[in-house]
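Appendix B. Worked example

We walk through a single record from start to finish. Start with the input: the chain for Zinc-type alcohol dehydrogenase-like protein, Priestia filamentosa, length 334.
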Amino acid sequence: MKAVGLYKYLPITREESLVDVEVEKGHPTGHDLLIRVQAVSVNPVDTKVRAPKDREEEKPKILGFDASGVVEEVGEECSLFKKGDKVYYAGSIGRQGTNSQYHLVDERIVGRKPENLSFAEAAAMPLTTLTAWEGLFQRLHVQEGESILIINGGGGVGSIAIQLAKQAGLTVIATSSRIETSEWCKGLGADFIINHYESMEEQLKEHGMESVDNIFCLHSTDKHWEEMGKVIRPQGKICSIVENEEPIDLKLLQDKSVSFFWEFMFTRPLYETDDMVEQHHILNKVGEELEKGNLQHTLQETISPINAENMRKAHGKVEEGKMIGKIVVEGWGQ
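Next comes the structure step. The output line below is what the pipeline stores for this chain.
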């Protein structure tokens, strides 16, 4: 079957960074589904996994996490899906990725594709939706009436986090550094926008806020750490999805008794936790809200078909760091 993979970890400007390959189609056993992939999305994690490293792969490494498609076969222990079901999911960082015509995935992390979304629109949603939901409701445990500062509101995770937080009854402050991104965030429901390249403390004060109850950091934990410590309220909560490059000084949070959490969407599938099926439930819950029109998809750009050249284009756009919403690559051509 067709796939896009790599043997060498190279800058995306190099043709060999992602190449067209032929690999064997798997057969599902246990809880696995075999999915006929229709569309895939590119996330920052794709570019981080692909980033230059001093090693080579003997067999092609297939990247890709977000996907939508149709169930082709089911393993003997499957009970949630059957052949022909349309699905969407974010996969596991511990397995081969979705950038292939057929893909094996554990059904416990797969959701039913929302009926009102195209395959491309659905493929834009899973990874960012799971990250936002877990961060907001299972790490921060946000409550109606609280405030939340979402740093980098216009990215993939921020775009769904704004909507989920607003739907949950929070006052949502999103950060943005460009006019078009600010308008996007406002359109998703953010109450007001501040610039994360300027003093967030001073900008919050201009809006009559001395502190916030929650912070969801989706951009440079290192850069924003000190200011997050300043604007979080006593006994508030901070959650970040961005790994730190420098040691984090947790003493900055001590006097305020602030709680800090990491959110890594791949934890459940990577460790096959007892509550792994929670991701199936989250995707189905959000899918229902998308079908009702209470949430909107975050797809902003589509490229076709799925091949190495177009995947390199998509990776390049994500690496620029200027994406609003999500980018999807769909279809396999002839």
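Two observations about the output. The mean pLDDT is 96. Residues 239 and 272 are 22 Å apart (CA to CA).
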